[in-house]
Amino acid sequence: MSGERKVHPGVKLALELGPVVLFFAGYMKLREQTFEVFGSPYSGFILMTAAFIPLMLVTTGILWWLTGKLSKMQIATVVLVVVFGGLSVWFKDERFFKMKPTMIYLLFGGLLGFGLLRGQSYLKLVMEEALPMQPEGWMILTRRLCAFFFALAVANEVIWRSFSTEVWVNFKTFGLTAALFGFFMTQGGVLNRYGIEEDGETDGEKDGEQDKAD
């Protein structure tokens, strides 16, 4: 497929969050059960992990088919889901899958940090079209998001190592999602100051002109 196509935001959100929500619902229903599969016992968590992997592949494939494009972050996420989820199922060990968010956030934070060391904003490369902003604004946002990703990696390690599986599943389903949403909601000051309107003016310049007019 050539070129990226637009898809309804609700459909995109459903495809991205659907597997996580279904994993949560399935785990809550099967968490205290053990299942015999080919003569081997599997906990509800491992069984839902095994179901999550193909579900993630299918929804990502549908998203690619609808949009004609996948971001590097989406591809990296799917690869890590397959690797760490597969290890959990193969060894019947929950720890591999629980470490997956840590690896994802370390990878994203590391990539952003590497770009910053080179004086570049890799975040700009993937979001510039959807969020036009001055270079200085991109560097500020990238530094903040880099630090935030590392903080999420640490938080995930603390939660899965210190609390029960049920606490971790709730944290992964709701805590991480809310944290990401909250982070971007709190970046309004950067977006307002360095954002670029379609006419080429920044929001800051427009505010300054309005103040002079008043």
TrEMBL record:
Where does the protein end up?
A: Cell inner membrane
> Does the record bear Cell inner membrane in its keywords?
yes
Which InterPro entries does UniProt cross-reference here?
A: YciB
Instruction: Give the transmembrane region(s).
Output: 12-30, 42-67, 73-91, 103-121, 141-160, 167-185
Query: Which segment of the chain is annotated as a signal peptide?
Result: none
Q: Which Pfam families match?
A: IspA (PF04279)
How is this protein situated with respect to the membrane?
Multi-pass membrane protein
Primary location group: membrane
Q: Identify the GO cellular component terms for this protein.
A: plasma membrane
Question: Record's superkingdom?
Answer: Bacteria
Ordered alphabetically, the record's keywords are: Cell inner membrane, Cell membrane, Membrane, Transmembrane, Transmembrane helix
- Cite the HAMAP family for this sequence: YciB (MF_00189)
What is this protein's function? Plays a role in cell envelope biogenesis, maintenance of cell envelope integrity and membrane homeostasis.
Q: What does the similarity note say?
A: Belongs to the YciB family.
This protein is called Inner membrane-spanning protein YciB
